[in-house]
Give the backbone structure.
Amino acid sequence: MGKYILGIETSCDETAAAVVENGRILHANVIRSSAAIHEKYGGVVPEIASREHVNAIIPVIEEALYQAKLSFSDLTALAVCCGPGLLGSLIVGVSAAKALAAVSGKPLIPVHHLASHIAANYLAFEDLEPPFLALIVSGAHSHIVEVVSYTEYSLLARTRDDAPGEAYDKISREIGLAYPGGPKLDKLSYEGNPKTLDLPRSKFQDSLDFSFSGIKTATLNELNKAEQKAAKRLVMREEILSNADIAASFQEAVVDTLMSHLEAALEAHPQEKLVLAGGVSANSLLRKRCEELGRKRDIQIYMPPLALCTDNAAMTAAQGYYEYESGIRAESCLNASAMWELGAPFPATRKLSTEDVLTSCE
């Protein structure tokens, strides 16, 4: 018998709800983004994002159930993203999920945002099962993780400063690309020469951790130098250094850094499967390099379809199923957390015993 999980995701500026069966079968995936509102500000404004979530959360949930042709009585459990993310945004989703769980009597499952990004691949690849290595790259995160089981993780590397998505947004704004700038910079980069700028590729001794602040700062410095030269010559800055060349050089440096650390991780922690996850997993150059790495090392590469790369509730529901099966349940005092380490237990949750899990899952 199918187990239907309603997933709710409000970690940033997408209000999303989805219904997934048995962690693998997607029945509905509804997303309402407020990106167009944030565009004029050049990035997400937390207060506006929270307000938009309040307006959209109930209609989005209703639409997901309607598309799935299900009612609350048909659901097995509710899963909600509790963090990490924008606290005000997370609170809207968690509050809605708690209220619906209380009214319906359904179990409530807290889901980690990064774990759900990994789980997006379960929806696309029926054969994918742990263990495997995962590279998670998004607007606020950059991790290399050993996925030991559906609910167990070993962190191998993380960024010590900027995340790739943050750096993409900053450089995109500086060269006049509208928010969200990542996809636009990716597209523009193919018109430029990636060897125009000699940008740094940071590495730490005896650590797989990332750093992207140096790439970002060096790119901004090159941009400023070009503007100064242009001012002296009374020409446009793009005649000195084109936006396409900036985009190509920047993207090459970011992807080179990601791939060199990923190769080092595979050397130290060999796996036969590599999973790409997170919003930046939609980047075309990163996907191309991962495919090349798969052929080079003869390992299977899994990359989510573009529709499941950015924030969505389908991934929340998918991961929620595996958390439910493992016995994780939320207490009534569950709250959101802007900071939640992947693999760490979440406050106000409990884990059922094996006997209780079997009973509750019957």
